[in-house]
Design brief:
13 strands, Lipocalin, disordered N terminus, 4 helices, mainly beta
Length: 269
């Protein structure tokens, strides 16, 4: 049984920051080129940024409600980098990568999920039927942060802290805007988020947080056809959409991000 799937953002990131290079939305983009094609804009020169590395165990949850099947899945691999200005969060930039080879479905709660997972990865060309170079090219879904707005409080030190064990936590909401790349095709996306900034209890409010937790408050909505994600036969060849298949499974995927980040090794102490 062929089932369709798609993923994304995580948010997780780890590509160098360079000038953005425009390309057509429907033009395939090899991941090897994504450092130049999808790189996040550099923070302003006046920004006081601290670099944070995305926790590799960061997750995404994927929901695909179809007529006959309601596919549920997740990813458990991530990477990336965030350059965070806690004095003015509007200056924050970064790039998030989600490892699609870790995508697994949990639709049935039986051994049918293993078959569905295999089909889902093959739709994305990161499964067993994909050639090694094709799998490497399509391995990551990438979200590059171009701007941040609708921030509840840009200066984290002005946010009232809540106590959680031996930590002070300051919570901010915002909307992140950027470019989303999956399966070699990109699209502009907006992601409303909640960010929780962790500090040692009693630490100065203007210091750097020891951890940042980021969750999307509204799912990232992805249309499969927009990213050329189609059913594929066991030889990895493209199979045309059919009325029966479309009526069975969803044409879109809603992705919820659950990202964690800690100061990277090259951050100032």
């Amino acid at each position: 049984m062929k089932v369709k799937f798609l993923l994304l953002l995580s948010v997780t990131v780890s590509l160098p920051t360079v000038a953005f290079v425009a390309c057509k939305k429907d033009s395939p983009v090899a991941l090897a080129e994504s450092a130049s094609v999808l790189s996040a804009a550099a923070p302003p020169p006046t920004a006081k940024v601290v670099s944070y590395a995305i926790d590799p165990a960061s997750k995404t949850a994927i929901d695909m409600p179809g007529v006959a099947e309601h596919i549920k899945a997740d990813t458990t691999g991530a990477a990336g980098r965030l350059d965070v200005d806690v004095s003015n969060l509007a200056n924050t930039r970064g790039e998030v990568k989600v490892d699609l080879t870790t995508l697994s479905t949990h639709t049935f709660g039986t051994n049918r999920d293993a078959d569905q997972t295999s089909h889902a990865r093959n739709w994305l060309e990161v499964g067993d039927v994909a050639a090694a170079d094709v799998k490497k090219t399509n391995q990551y879904a990438v979200f590059a942060i171009q701007s941040v707005d609708k921030i509840s409080e840009p200066n984290v030190s002005k946010v009232a802290a809540t106590k959680d064990n031996n930590e002070d936590i300051r919570t901010v909401t915002a909307t992140v805007h950027g470019e989303f790349l999956v399966h070699g095709h990109k699209a502009v996306k907006d992601v409303p988020i909640e960010a929780r900034f962790h500090y040692p209890s009693g630490a100065a409010a203007d210091g750097s947080p020891t951890r940042i937790d980021i969750k999307s408050t509204t799912p990232l909505h992805v249309t499969l056809k927009e990213h050329d994600v189609h059913p594929r036969d066991t030889f990895g060849k493209l199979t045309d959409w059919s009325a029966s298949l479309i009526s069975k499974v969803a044409e879109t995927a809603d992705i919820t991000l659950d990202i964690h980040a800690s100061p990277s090794a090259d951050s100032p102490k």
